[in-house]
Amino acid sequence: MSDLQPVRMDHVSVARRRFLKVTGAGVAGASLLTMLEARQAPAQLRGTTLRILTWSHFIPAYDVWFDKFAAQWGEKNGVKVRVDHIPHLEIPARMAAEFAAGTGHDLILNNSTILARLYYKSLVDMTDIYDQLGKKYGGWIPAAKSPIEVEGRIYGIPMYYILLPMLWRKDLFEANGLKPPDTWELARVAARTLKPKGNPTGMAFSHCNDANLNWRSLMFSFGAAETDPSGDNVMIDSKEMREALLFAKAMFDEGMTPEVFSWDDASDNRFLASGIASWIHDAISAYRTTESTNPPVFKSTFIGLEPAGPGGKRVSVSAPIVFLGWKFSKNQPAVKEFLVHLVDNDKEGMIQSTGYNMPFLNDNAKKPMPIIGADPKMQVLQDFPKIVAFFGYPGPYTPQIQEVANLFVLPDIFTRVARGTSVDEALKWGVGEYRRIFSKYKRA
Amino acid sequence: MTTVAVPRTHRQKEIRRHLLLYAGMTPFLFIAVFPIYWMAITAFKQEADLYRMGNIPFWFNLPPTLKNFETLFYQTNYGYWIVNTLTISAWVALITLLTAVPAGYALARLRLPGAENIGIAIFMTYLVPGIILFLPLSRVVASLGLQDSWWALVVVYPTFTIPFCTWLMMGFFKTVPMEMEEAARVDGCGQLGALVRVVLPVSLPGVLTSVIFAFTLSMQDFLYGLAFVAPGDQKPVPVGVPTELIRGDVFFWGSIMAAALLVGLPVAILYNFFLDKFIQGITGGVGK
Amino acid sequence: MTVLPAGDGAESTTRAAAPPVARRSSAAAWWRTNTSRRLAFGYLLLAPAALYVALLVGVPFFFSLYLALSDANVGDPVATFVGLENFRAAWEMDTFWAALRNSVVFLVVAAVFKSLLGTSLAFLLLQNFKGKKLVRGLVVIPFTLPISVSVLSWKWMYDSQFSVINWGLHTAGLIGAYGSESWPIWLGQPHLALIACIGVNVWRSFPFSAIVLLAGFTSVPLEVLDAARVDGCSFFQRFRHVVTPMIFPILIIGFLFDTVFTLSDLSVVYLLTQGGPGSATQILPVLAYQIGIQAGSLGRGAAIALMLVPLLFPALFLMLRNLKRRDW
User: What ipTM, to 2 d.p.?
Assistant: First the structure.
């Protein structure tokens, strides 16, 4: 099978389909069309290989399902599929190595660190299937484009995103006459009330992904912005940001203990599971961990919507998961076919992840959503798609924002304030760091 | 000097000496072994046992379980990882010996012009950090067709074992007195003969040390394994454990500890065996 | 019986016939007359190692120099020369200087503790006592565990809530309860965090120092030591004046090696704190990794990583010069 064949098929397939439809070309043409519509891969795919690199999902059962799913697709289409799992934090290193080697997997997943804009020159252009899937499923959510769009073309398919809702102890709140933490102010009051009783709260002031996500949720909900919609200008120095910083300091002083300076992504999970936390702002992996290790606490743990800031705004920053395809892959059609098939079965994926995976497509976000629609405690998660955002909000997710995230600049600003630096000084330092990083990209 | 006094004094001295030694060893033992003991306990603990504030870390609060080991063997590729680790390390040790021992001898004994500079240059390679190396090396690995096979690591690991072992052997060879070699030559050995029949046996401790270090160093790497080997059944333990037992923000602590123990203990036993050879070869030892 | 190379037979018989007194000068003559064969033999022995290293490290090293002087990023196959721009950009970062300082502090403090602990342990292991084999086997385990796995264990031991160290200290009455002021947050308080990372490095490596020393000690010929003892040297005198000079080469190698590995080690800080809190534990390799690989800015990452070289160079140079002086 020559290498050229699949590539040509790529560019021509859409045009050919339209041509066949329009001209009603013969039985052969129609059957090709029906084959394509029925999502059966064309004969060219038979005998080829597809290598997929994905992350080790929190929910091991999802990985088991995914591997089987990929294998089944492979069997049906005569494609040998292999799926490899590594932690999401290590995927950038792996991508760098594969790029340097010019060979590797065909399809790679990015979680949180989305490198589409960095590697776009070597990635498969997926605009065609992106548009097609969007049309089929009621459109993509507004935030979907940001990580993967470069100069008007789309270089990846967003699969799902992971939310960080409020996880709070209803029993503790009720026993102390506290209202559910629907706003940040209420959350702060709850922490203030419960800390002396041995139930503080905690949000990581450290170099971890949760810190990057949580503090952005807070500041965006307070009305602050990271960059402007063009993505070129740093906007963190604002009145709203100062309010958010002062609020974070107050919340720390009143309701948290210094251990939050050492937290990693898993610490808040343990905090909740140990029964100490009054509330945390974390992915539902913490909810599930508590379910399996501390049933009594789990019974009283409830999920809450992203708290509103003083102006009533709610923004929930989450971690996007996107699939990218290398241009050097020898099997680009298989890549696209598989992705379409995966998106077609998105609902199944959501179920297998026990409600963890949130959909990028509007249809799949319609209520009731699988798993979370049925579980009374989890229903509130269905309201998140409207308020979800990613790093850089309201600007796009650019490589410079990626570096800012990798160096944990934003959590460091909050950490400095919590440790006693004045808001002005901390912001001055932070803006300096942002500008320094941004200027390097301008030079290049 | 009565026959009664001598044995008592000697035995008292022995006992006192032993007590002093044990007292001296205790802090070291404690520092080295306490984490291991704790890891062993954790490996057998149920997950719920880990996350309660009131629980004693040093003993079981809930009944011990083999579940972590089960997870390790049945739900991950741990079995493969162990075999891979041992095989890779063995090959690397072999390659290292074959290259470093001759090189060490050549640099130490044969008065080659530029020997010093070559020796320094070899050591300088350690200045190149692995995070830079792994990119061009990935191209080498790919061009050899070894990507995603543990053979890639067999090719790459000697880059950090050879320099050190070369220098180690240089050091050992330098301590072999010239007279020994010359005597061998007088007795009719050639250059190669002198090396093989006289110098090597005397430097056996050094050779064994090199083997041990090459072996251990191969087990320490994380970055190269991560960059070059993705398939679950090709990974060595140091790569497999952090990549498949940490999922997002969920750490499978029990299994991580179990994994650590199962690979650490056999290697420690192996070490012990080699260390024996050192001491055996030198009867009496220093400071008897 | 091994087969001897044919050529040497003739020389040896000639030499054997010469009077024993002249043996030394004939040996020297032998060295000289066989220069070409010696050189050929020598370079042949040296070739595999030198080639391996030149190809797989030397070439990539020059590649990394090229990267440091270009604006390369992970996604771009073509990079343009930008001179010292990357280095300048690094020097402008506060975090860079923090990382540099931390790398040096880490190295020095760790080295001091490793030497002390390693030497003491090596001495103890030289003695004969009951149970010695078992003790030796146990004490070596920290070094034999793969680094990524043992660091993870320490992460759990340092946990802010469940730290077994804190539990022990609290039970012994030395610190307050969880939540109190005196409950150490090992990975959260800046100074403690650096100490915690250094502690893991020392814990892992001091058996290594001990082994190197032990190997060195055991390679000292007994005759020399006995002669010294006969001459009336005390234990410490023997150690300082006889043993140390003889094992100096091995000591230096071990020390240099450990220095290099400590300075360029990424795993401990990466897995424990990712450089936090703030930049309290940030070190050059981790910073280089975060910028060069995770953010994709290869040129700047390479520049930062290469800044390790000037740190190592003086140490290397001094040690090697010292070795030369000792006629090594």
Answer: 0.77
